Amino acid sequence: MKRAALFCCLTIAVLIAVITPLHSFAAAADGKLRILVFGAHPDDAEFKAGGTAAKWAKLGHHVKLVSVTNGDIGHWQMAGGPLAQRRTAEVQAAAKKLGVESQVLDIHDGELLPTLENRKLITKVIRDWKADIVISHRPWDYHPDHRYVGVLVQDAAFMVTVPFFCPDSPPLKTNPVFLFSSDGFQRPYPFKPDVAVDIGDVLEQKLDAIHELASQVYEGGANGSEEFVRSVPPESDAAGRKAWLKNRWQDRQSREADKARAVLQEFYGEEAGKAVKYAESFEICEYGRRPSPEELKKLFPIGE
Ligand SMILES: [Zn+2]
């Protein structure tokens, strides 16, 4: 009898250890935010939210950048397993520079579909991270993988709290705040930022992270060419490459700041908002929890 009781207790203990993610304790203990940024490919989350992620991480919040596909056709010269491995290593190196975690899901690049299987997968990723904030592409993007990340995350937005959907993973008690990352698409409606973050103080850090994504930024990814590679400073000239990168990204982030100027002024004050040079911006998704501007200011690393 005693032996049977001991065996029973051990079995329960093992089961609890297996089904309870370790970080659920960490989250309860440290009271920090838990943030997930989804991108379709190993570079999208870093491009769209790398600066904001670095700022969150500096404040002790827990950030994970997730690539929903493995990027295995995202290059003009190589493909398949070796490319997926290369791109996974790139985003891991970038995550280290940002002070965040990184995950690449094992789905072929260019083949993502909004299936029930993938809805369950995305739901579990959000639940496992115990996310307070979830960011994804909008479902109006040019690239089918980007679009379907938007659809899948929207579809998961309700399901993450429903106990009998994927009953093998514990549901979230509070619905996260879901947001979209910025894009330039105009139809059916243009991106309209609800929150914008000054990333001037972490721009160098974001660039250090993006510098690690060589297959994309220095080789041109799927649309690259030998000609493109020749137009970029060579790998042996790291300083030259970084200067080349800085030039492009300063432009990109300052255009984003200009587009989000009104929101920057709302969050930082009129003068300080006007002075912001480089920004990342996000739009609240209709689904999930809808925070007030005051709460958004607390959730995002806006600073006082
Ligand atoms: Zn992409």
Small molecules bound: zinc ion
What order do the strands of the largest sheet run in, or round the barrel if closed? 3-2-1-4-5-7-6
Order of helices and strands: HHEHEHEHEHEEHHHHHHEH
**Largest sheet entry:** 7 strands, mixed
Structure in a nutshell:
This protein has 304 residues and is of the alpha/beta class. 49% of the residues lie in helices and 13% in strands. Helix 6 links the parallel strand 4 and strand 5.
Write a structural description.
- 49% of the residues lie in helices and 13% in strands.
- The protein is built from 13 helices and seven strands.
- α3 runs parallel beside α4 (81-98).
- The longest helix has 22 residues, at 238-259.
- It is globular, with a radius of gyration of 20 Å.
- Residues 40-41, 44, 143, 146 line the site of zinc ion.
Describe the SSE topology.
Layout: H1 2-19, H2 23-30, E1 34-39, H3 44-58, E2 62-67, H4 81-98, E3 101-104, H5 116-129, E4 133-136, H6 144-159, E5 177-181, E6 195-198, H7 203-211, H8 214-217, H9 226-230, H10 238-259, H11 261-268, H12 270-275, E7 279-288, H13 293-299
Parallel strand pairs: 1-2, 1-4, 2-3, 4-5
Antiparallel strand pairs: 5-7, 6-7
Helix pairs in contact: 3-4, 3-7, 4-7, 5-6, 7-10
The chain binds zinc ion.
